[in-house]
Structure formats: structure tokens, C-alpha cells
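Technical annex B. To support the medicinal chemistry partners, we prepared a structural model of the target in complex with flavin-adenine dinucleotide, based solely on the information shown next.
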Amino acid sequence: MKRRSLFKVAPILMAAGGLPTLARAQATSSQNEWDVVVVGAGFAGLCAALEAAEKGAKVVLIEKMNRPDGTTIYSSGWIACVGSKFQKDHPDSKEAFFNDMMKLSGYRSDPECIKVYAEEAGDGVDWLASHGTPFYLWENLPAPELSRCLISPGDGITGGSQLVRCVLKALEKKGVPIHYNTKAIELITDDLLNVKGVVCLTKDKRVEYLAKGGVILTTGGYAANQAMVTQFIGPWASRLVLRGSPWITGENITMTQKVMAKLVNLDQFYAGPMTPTGKANPSPLMHAGYGIQVNSQGKRFVEETWLQVPKAKAIAERTPDNISYMLIGQDADKNSNILTNTLTRFRRLGYEVPSGNTIEEVAKKAGVPVNNLLATVKEFNAAVKKGKCKELVPPYSYDEPHALETGPYYMIPAAGGIASTFGGPKINGKAEVVNTENRTIPGLYAAGAAAGGVWYQDDIGGNQLGGCMVFGRVAGRNAALRAKEQN
Ligand SMILES: Cc1cc2nc3c(=O)[nH]c(=O)nc-3n(C[C@H](O)[C@H](O)[C@H](O)COP(=O)(O)OP(=O)(O)OC[C@H]3O[C@@H](n4cnc5c(N)ncnc54)[C@H](O)[C@@H]3O)c2cc1C
């Protein structure tokens, strides 16, 4: 079609269905057939593809970026489980693990999914180890983490990147193709809304990937989609700093609406403190038992002993600018040199922390009203000396509080950050997506942050990557089985 005649046709095409129709008319298209199509090469997608291939399926993994570029590569690489070979000297029970995960979610996680998680996570870690993933166990952490958290140490890379690397190697060995720069845009269904495949766009082509056994959605959540964060979580949440990947933009929601998937827990997300530019994580220092947390007016507004999730949410909710500071003195180094280590890490990341030999000096450097900060410190130090910290508003609940009397002082900036979202199309214990009547949508599976119903409110450190592994494998296994049944 000539350019002039195309523009003549354009208004008619737009009236019939909008610009996508026009784009479709211009692009060449093709079709290919697989047993299982996995969409999104994060940890969930990688595990799903490997498991499906090991179960004999012809699998393809589709990724919209030019490498695995989701939140997994930003993560620390913790995986929570019980019963792995690394935990032989730490007796624990799947039942206790299940109970702790349910409790942490306020009993809002789907017990069917959490039961599957408790049952399968240990085996999943052993499976990853059998593919060459190195792990070590964090032993005897405070409850509910106990000796349940394994970490895959990255050698100069994040733990999450290390996990990705290991599974990529296993996929390569197995000969599973990964189609990069290929973005899934729409599910292909029959008239009964059974899922038959997925439409993808490459730079210059529209490709239909047909899937005999099923499509597994592992596109992550919507933490980087400001419109969705504002709509589902609330306008205040749009101030949260993004801690993970900027490409995680909610295709788990947009693609599943067509098949009337049941979307659940959309207001739920995982949070943590971050510097306002998103460069460095101040969290360990904020839980070291030293210092006070103040807003940009120099006043305390949150309990310092709160864990990182409620604390990060409180910073964004209770301050107009999503900014707070951890005011801390040099004596914090008595706790494992934590101050020096944090300052070194921040410098390496290009972040200079405001400091001063006196409270006045550090307040000026940070741009916080000097008199307010002096008054806050005076009140705090007096309460420490009288043993009345728990009567402060808000209470200061450390059992052994330390007065702020040892300079130099530092004000470490901490904004509330969003790490990942928990909402999405509801899955059952087989990782099948269900519709608004709780019936499974044949041919559609989801896992990892793309799936809804598994996590709510908070989790044990390592539950999310653990969920990617467990439900990725469950989805891969069931889609491979379904492909066989369709033959
Ligand atoms: C700083 C930080 C630390 C963390 N540490 C931990 C930890 O130690 N332990 C833990 O359990 N959790 C941790 N988390 C949370 C955890 O990282 C995530 O929950 C998890 O990585 C999600 O993995 P995923 O595979 O579901 O999605 P992702 O890793 O986000 O991958 C999704 C992939 O899908 C691709 N994609 C998206 N849309 C499309 C499309 N339309 N077509 C094709 N491809 C698409 C994306 O490009 C991406 O590669 C952490 C998070 C952060 C931010």
C-alpha cells in the first residue's frame, strides 16, 4: 500500500478498532507452535521453562528486553524453605513453616498455595543446587526466619543475578530457546476463552506463539507502572521510590483482563527504605539499635523498631515529601562497624551523607530546621537518661537505647521504596489462573510476582524468590503434562 493511500484508510481503521489495527496492517506476521510458552525471563519464568523442558515439553521462553531484566536481578537472592539438604542440622517442620507464613500474611494468603509452598520449597532449593547454584544457610535468625533462609551469594553481582545466571546455564544445556526483544501483548483464545497462545511483537514483526499445553505468565507485577500503583494502592504510593526494575509494568493485569481472570490483592506490595534517588539501601543501619528517625522538619514520626516494610510505607504515607533521615552518632559503630560500612557502601554508590561534628552542623547540612532537631534530640536524650523512652510519642522501644551524644553525627536519608507487588490474576495450588467464578482458565498459568493470591502484607525473607521457584516449577510441570494430554 502506498503511503498516501494508507493515510486515507487510517481514519476508517481507527474507527473500527484504533491504532493497533493500523500497526497490524503494516507489520509482517508469522506463527509458530510449542507445547509450553513462558512469558517473562525473571526467576519465575526461568524456573518454569526449565521444569517444563525437564518434563519433556517443547518450550520457548519469551522476554521483552534484550536480557532477563526484571526485579530478580536487583534482588538479594534469599530463598526461604525448610527441608532442603542444607538444613539437615536444623530440625523444623513444614507445618510450622506454613503456620508462620499464614500468620505473617494476616491469614490472607491462600492456604492452598502456602501449603504447596511449604511442601515444595526445600525440594526446589535442592533442584537448583543440583543445577550448580551455590547456596549457604543463614543460621538461627530471629523468628520467623530461624534457619529457613538460604542465600545464593553473587560474586560481585546481586544474589538474584546469580540465580538467573545458574538457571540460564541449565536452560542452555537443555537447549531451551529464549526469544529476546519479544513482547507479549495479548492472549490468543478460542470462543470459550480457553487460552491457546500469545501474540507478541518484535521490532518489525507480529508473531503468534501457539501453546498446546499452556501459556505461563511470569511477567512480574506492576511496581514500575505509576498509573497502576496510584489506582490500586493509592495516590500516596505514587511517591514511593522504585527499588526494582523499571520494566515491570503490569502486563499480568492488562493481558489477563480479556479472559476475565480474577484479580486479587492489587493493593498489596513489598516495601523497603531507599535513598530518595533509589541508589542505595539504608535498611541495615536503620535497624542497628542506634539513632532516631526524623522527618524533614526534624521531628520523630515513626517507631524506629518497626520492620522495614511498615517503616517504608510510613515514610511515604506520613511525610509530605517521602523523605526522612536516620540521625545517628559515631557510637553506632559499636554494632559491627555498621556506620562505617554503610558510609563506605554509600560513597561507592556515589552518595555523600550529610555529616557534622554537632547536631546544629548536621541539621544545616541536611537542610532540616536546626531548632526543631535540637529539641527532638534534647527530648530523646532526656528520655534515655530517665529510662522513659517507651513513653515518647511515638514510643522508642529498644531495650537498651543510646543517647545521641557522640559525634560526628550523620543524617542518612531514607525514603519509602516499592520493591514488588503482590497482586495479580489469582492462581490455585496448581498455578492455574482462575476466573471471576473461581473456575480455572484452561491453558493459562502464572507464577512469581505476576500471580496473585500467594503473598499478602509481609513475608518471610526469601518467600518471593521462593514463590517464583515453587510456582514456576508447578506451572511448568502442569503445562507440560497438559501438552501431553492434548496429543
Ligand atoms: C532490592 C530488592 C531486593 C529483593 N530481595 C529479595 C530476596 O532476597 N528474596 C526474595 O524472595 N525476594 C526479594 N525481592 C523480591 C523479588 O526480587 C521479586 O519478587 C522477584 O524477583 C520477582 O520475580 P519474577 O520472576 O516474578 O519477575 P521479574 O524478575 O520482575 O521478571 C519479569 C520478566 O518479565 C519480562 N516481561 C514483562 N512483561 C513482559 C511482556 N509483556 N513480554 C515479555 N516479557 C515481559 C520482564 O522484562 C522481566 O524480565 C527483592 C526485591 C528488590 C527490589
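Notes passed to the chemistry partners:
Residues 67 and 247 are 12 Å apart (CA to CA).
Confidence is low (pLDDT under 50) at residues 1-24.
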